[in-house]
């Protein structure tokens, strides 16, 4: 498998950005963004789809931690 060309990368990233924008606008409503999800999966290599999906989940988690703060679990001793 050869690396995607510059144009293929641009198309993939545009599909990813459109999906992420839809998810942001709809409050992560996957059903409402199904068309964008299909386009994303068609335009990007499967490994990239997996990576970008995990990346979005991590960024959302990080954003939530920054917004809500971190509170350690009760009963867990500190080293």
Keyword list:
79 residues, mainly alpha, 3 helices, 0% strand
Task: Explain what the structure shows.
With 79 residues, the protein is mostly helical. 67% of the residues lie in helices and 0% in strands. It has helices at residues 6-25, 34-43, 46-68. The radius of gyration is 17 Å and the shape is elongated. The mean pLDDT is 91.
| Helix percent band | 55-70%
Please report which band the strand proportion falls in: under 5%, 5-15%, 15-25%, 25-35%, 35-45% or over 45%: under 5%
The overall pLDDT, averaged over residues, is: 91
Number of helices: 3
Shape: elongated
Using only C-alpha atoms, the radius of gyration works out to 17 Å
What characterizes the major β-sheet?
none
Count all strands and give the number. Answer: 0
Helix and strand composition category:
mainly alpha
Q: What letter string, H or E per element, gives the SSE order?
A: HHH
Unreliable runs, pLDDT <50, ≥5 residues? none
The termini sit apart by 47 Å
């Amino acid at each position: 498998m050869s690396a995607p060309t510059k144009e293929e990368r641009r198309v993939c990233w545009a599909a990813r950005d459109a999906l992420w924008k839809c998810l942001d606008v709809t409050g992560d409503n996957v059903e409402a963004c199904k068309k964008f999800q299909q386009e994303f999966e068609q335009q990007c290599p499967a490994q990239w789809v997996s990576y970008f999906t995990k990346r979005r989940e991590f960024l959302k988690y990080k954003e939530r931690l920054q917004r809500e703060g971190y509170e350690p679990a009760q009963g867990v001793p500190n080293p």
